[in-house]
Amino acid sequence: MGWWDHVQPAPKDPITSVTQAFLSDPTPLKLNLGVGAYRDDKGKPVTLECVRRAAEKISGCEILESTKATTKSKFVQDCVKLAYGNDSSVVREDRFAGVPALSGTGACRLFAEFQRRFYPDSQMFLPMPTWSNHHDIWRDSQVCTRTYHYYDPGTKGLRFQALVNDIKNAPDRSFFLLHPCAHNPTGVDPNYEQWKEISHIFKIKNHFPFFDMAYQGIASGDVERDATAIRIFLEDGHLLGCAQSFSKNMGLYEHRVGCVSIVSWDDKQATAIKSQLQRIVRAMYSSSPVHGPLLVSTILNDADLKALWEEEVKVMVDRLISMRITLRQTLEELNSSSSWEHITKQVGMFYFSGLSPEEVNHLQRDFHIYMTNDGRISMAGVTRSNVDYLASAIHEVTSVNNSNCIDSKHFEFVV
After folding, report:
1. Do 292 and 166 share a structural domain?
2. What is the pLDDT at residue 28?
3. Which CATH number do you get for residue 96?
């Protein structure tokens, strides 16, 4: 047998395979609703104006080897301020350890490895459902995962009491992954009072919360408001971890800009934790890029650029909300027997439609509409030119004994 004859093709990734299938479809009238990055109303990727201006500001500076450490340290501090608050005692007292990461995925992977090294017998509790890659990240880090109740398919909302019961019944000092805002894939978030109760139970059980914040600003349009869950936990005296990504809220997807940070008791403990995180990074990929973090720091430290960024985030979210409203209204105007109020109750980039795998396959096969198999629809891919087609197709596949197949010839939209 040859060296690699025993290697079999890996299973298709449930998210990236959607785009691959979309690209291989020769049909001109098709929709990609699987991509988890912002698109404008023409379906095109967006470079934010604040990013353009930040790039111009740093274009003339030389990033010397001697300045890399300073640049990365400043970036981590900026990330921590954004997540925990400028006036947080964590920031004032240097009670945090953090390192730049390769976007949110890399940040989660670093924490998973850190967890394995220092709590080798621990598990990570993941919400059910969660971003599919969470399971792979902790599995490949050799950390066992368990799930806790989160989403209710019946109400298309939060299974709060079941969630609370799972937190109470988990072994003391368990690790939990939490989505602080714009839960992926469901778009269903706990409200303020529910976060307070969750934090209270975590305190009693002495659980460790790890927040994966990939969508700060994308839930409400307000970056401060979207950090509310983390601020609640800090006010209650928790130690916690946080993964941050700027792929969505700054449109830096291909720059892979992220950060992982861990709150500690004091600055001495923070120094020790940081040294261990740096050791993990050194063995994985040695050093992270500098250009993306420098763009982020430039925006966050320039009052005008930061204000512009916050305005642009609000514009993005307003468009997503507008498309939710339009999609719901269009479906309701088709006299569908289903209820569509959950479209506008959910928040963030994704609409968790409740479509079955069979209905998703139907949409792909007959209408060339692509989404993940769990029915997650990226609202960034919905535009004014294609929303009628999408609504008609959803109505078609969800209607019982509907024999009026829609004719795609009547629709024109930008692919």
Report:
1. yes
2. 87
3. 3.40.640.10
Residue 55 located in a structural domain:
no
In a domain, 52, yes or no: no
Each residue of 313-350: pLDDT tens digit? 999 999 999 999 999 999 999 987 788 999 999 999 99
278 and 241 housed in the same domain? yes
Q: What is the 3-state secondary structure (H, E, C) of the chain?
A: CCCCCCCCCCCCCCCHHHHHHHHHCCCCCCEECCCCCCECCCCCECCCHHHHHHHHHHCCCCCCHHHHHHHHHHHHHHHHHHHHCCCCHHHHCCCEEEEEEEHHHHHHHHHHHHHHHHCCCCEEEEEECCCHHHHHHHHHCCCEEEEEECEECCCCEECHHHHHHHHHHCCCCCEEEECCCCCCCCCCCCCHHHHHHHHHHHHHHCCEEEEEECCCCCCCCCCCHHHHHHHHHHHCCCCCEEEEECCCCCCCHHHCEEEEEEECCCHHHHHHHHHHHHHHHHHHCCCCCCHHHHHHHHHHHCHHHHHHHHHHHHHHHHHHHHHHHHHHHHHHHCCCCCCCCHHHHCCCCEEECCCCHHHHHHHHHHHCEECCCCCEEEHHHCCCCCHHHHHHHHHHHHCCCCCCCCCHHHCCCCC
Q: Which of 189, 212, 226, 388 is catalytic?
A: 212
| Candidates 30, 72, 78, 131; catalytic one | 131
Instruction: Confirm whether 212 is a catalytic residue.
Output: yes
Same domain, residue pair 264 and 362: no
The number of domains in the chain is 2
Active-site annotation holder among 30, 72, 156, 248: 248
What local confidence, expressed as pLDDT, does residue 14 receive? 85
Q: What is the pLDDT of residues 54-83, one digit of tens each?
A: 999 998 776 655 567 788 899 999 999 999
- Over 80: is that where the pLDDT of 255 sits? yes
Q: Indicate the pTM of the whole model.
A: 0.94
Q: Specify whether 296 is located in the same domain as 376.
A: no
* pLDDT score recorded for residue 410: 55
pLDDT in tens, 282-316: 999 998 889 999 999 999 999 999 999 999 999 99
Q: Which structural domain, as residue segments, surrounds residue 258?
A: 60-306
Q: What is the pLDDT, as a whole number, of residue 266?
A: 95
3 occurs within a structural domain: no
